[in-house]
Amino acid sequence: MRTIALHGPTHHVQGVDFEGSALWLTSVDRNGRKGFLQTFDLESGALRMTVEIQDNERFHPGGITLDGSSVWAPVAEYRAKSSSVIQRRNKRTLELEYQFPVNDHIGCIAATPEFLIGGNWDSREFYVWNRQGKLLRTIPNANQNAYQDMKFADPYVVASGLLAGKTGAIDWLELPSLALSRRIPVGNTDRGVPFTREAMSIHGDQLILAPEDDPSRVFLFRREH
């Protein structure tokens, strides 16, 4: 495991993704009613760029996912059963490219080659949209894990969150059912925070977890097969 301290205000961390030497991270400042999308240098932890991504009463960004030249991010009201916009932003400039509304609080999103898959507050229910934002179906979450971030890792959706008793776990979910295929329990950081409390990303054999609020750290693991 490698630990990288992030050198910049990260408030309450929500989502993370990475590519090469770059890391994208969302966070929310509840008192200031602002949401942020930031990029950091994955080697040094240096802050590269920050943009605010709130949309009127919606200022709670969630788990994010890279998708080609873009990054998808849900931005919701800070309450369950509320409303969201699903934003697609340029991953280099962080400028807004497209968004569509959802009549629920969406807290995380994953992108497959065909679909977008979102989880609402604590991922009690999954939403499946086409890439233009048309709702195709909803699926109850029967896995008893309150997912906070998830990614498509062919042929699975990998999702992380908290089980009953605030213990953490990372799950591999089958497509298209999103039924549980495999679960790995996780422990806590040396600050006593469950590793899967918030942000997670996985690419190949690399797993990144960002569970801690400001001052935040990123934990980089090499995944065992």
Task: List the domain count as a whole number.
Answer: 1
Secondary structure class reads: mainly beta
Poorly predicted regions are: none
Beta-strand proportion: over 45%
Text of the CATH class: Mainly Beta
Radius of gyration: 16 Å
Can you say what the CATH homologous superfamily is? YVTN repeat-like/Quinoprotein amine dehydrogenase
The SSE order reads EEEEEEEEEEEEEEEEEEEEE
* Residues in helix, %: under 10%
Number of helices: 0
Distance separating the two termini: 16 Å
Query: Based on DSSP secondary structure assignment, what is the total number of beta strands?
Result: 21
CATH architecture verdict: 7 Propeller
- In one word, what is the shape? globular
- Write down the CATH topology: Methylamine Dehydrogenase, Chain H
Q: Describe the biggest sheet? A: 5 strands, antiparallel
State mean pLDDT (0 to 100 scale). 96
Please describe the structure with a list of short key phrases separated by commas or semicolons.
21 strands; globular; single chain; 4-stranded antiparallel beta sheet; 57% strand; 5-stranded antiparallel beta sheet; Methylamine Dehydrogenase, Chain H; 0% helix; 225 residues; mainly beta
